[in-house]
Amino acid sequence: DLAALPYTRMVLSETLRLYPPIxxxxxxxxxxxxxxxxxxxxxxxxxxxxxxxxRDPRYYTDPDRFDPERWHPTSGTRPEKFAYFPFGGGPRxxxxxVYGLQEAALVIATLAQRWRMRLVPGHRVVLRPLINLxxxxxIRMVLEPRCFRPA
Length: 151
Description:
Blueprint: H1 6-18, E1 25-28, E2 33-35, E3 38-40, E4 45-48, H2 50-53, H3 97-114, E5 115-119, E6 127-129, E7 133-135, E8 141-145
Antiparallel strand pairs: 1-4, 2-3, 5-8, 6-7
């Protein structure tokens, strides 16, 4: 059913853009190199942040707005290579990325088919950056059943 869920995939991509599971990735430079006019000596710890990059207006129009339509195949707004990397990238990217994206899309579609979810009024969502980016107080939701009519 994944092929029949393009909008679900767009919602998932946009969610991961705004809230990547890993908010910072560290790598140690094996040899000296230059990046953006800066010399980086060998042995330097280099940090990359999907959280920051995914909100950069150079790569995303209105970057703080949740907009799944930016991922529509005909939108023409695909980000540059490595301007979107919620699971890292290149040879050191997350080995579970494909499985995780498939599982998440199926779970989202299954839940959204039966339930309308709304944030509990007054509940604050505060990010807590540990190893993974997570909500400090959870995300408290009210579930309302949808009218489900079998085909």
